[in-house]
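Ticket #403: bound-state structure for pyridoxal-5'-phosphate.
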Amino acid sequence: MDRLWLEKMFETHVAQTSPFSMRFVVSRAEGCYLYDATGRRHLDFIAGIAVANVGHCHPRIVEAVTEQSQRYAHTMVYGEHVQEPQVLLAAEIAKKAPQGLDSVYFFSTGAEATDAALKLAAKLTGRRIFCAFHGAYHGDTVGAASCFGHSAFRKPFQHVLLQVRFLRYGHFDDLELIDDDIAAVIVEPVQGEGGIIIPPEGFLESLQHQCRERGAFLIFDEVQTGFGRLGEWFAAHRFKVSPDLMTVGKAMGGGYPLAGLIGPREILYRFAAEPPFSHITTFGGHPVSCAAGLAAMKVIEEEELLSRAQDLGQFLLKSFKQIAATDTSIKEVRGIGLMIGLEMVSAEKARKMVEQCRDRGLILETTLLAENVVRISPPLIVGKQECEEALEIVEAVLKSIRD
Ligand code: PLP
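RESOLUTION: The complex was predicted; output attached.
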């Protein structure tokens, strides 16, 4: 199909999220690479924003999806029929999740999981105020958008949002603001859209302690950090914290829409009573997505992607730090596993870096709330050679944008 025509139709008929989308016409994707309409290969170092953890079109995922779509797709709304891929995936997640979180409520998007977690905490505590953090992003449904840690994004909708008290991420003093009125605190164990922010040592433990003291639910939003990105199945393992509830999405479905709220069975069961059906969804846990998700978990295990994320994450972090030591455009390099951020001296530099890397065939992107931070989140199947290729491009671009 004609590329220019497609681009024009995209602009005319596909609702836009900003005036500056990438305008990248995808022709196909494989492993760590995307191919555009001219057949040019691009190294994907954002993985569809932390989705393609097992790479694009992994043969195991293609096989699982093909097989499941030939057996059955949607048969009944979520929670009614016993569907093998859903059951097997839930059981597999229960094995990997922190102890006690043995049940999964399936959704299609991370924002739905956020809303469900907030609703459940409200139902169980009878409280009406939530806590979230400045710099947080939990999705864009009304409930999730209420927890958006940037006032400019809340402002147009403020009159319909939930009551949320915002705390400064990493500030121990602010934990005192979690009092007996708080139904739940939602937190990203590493802030993604806020600019790849790692909490200070002991912060998440203190947060857990304060939540327990005050009877507030602690919700870990693991939509970006879950399923291996930090080199562990979940960030909760990395930080040795046991949240009451966990939300997941993105990489969970191996590239297919899938999300979940993970918690103890007796807690999640409260959606099934008083009244029954007090939270429902049609497509949550779609069998084809669950088959893909199950295959993705097997790939993570069999290809030892957790240790690969740790090793290559260390390699990239060290290499970027070395580059930053002699370059004035980068202010700080930080990250855990393959969730890395390059904080540039300005948003303008970050934009130049992203655009010029793209011109050279390396796909990068800034984070939503910190436009001066360039995110590095390649598929976890990435190899040393691809990392070296990316580092070479970044170095060349840094030279060309030097003042
Ligand atoms: N939570 C986090 C930490 C996210 O990064 C995102 C999306 O970027 C979401 C929730 C929302 O997920 P979704 O876009 O699937 O609604």
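RESOLUTION NOTES: The two ends are 42 Å apart (CA to CA).
TICKET STATUS: resolved
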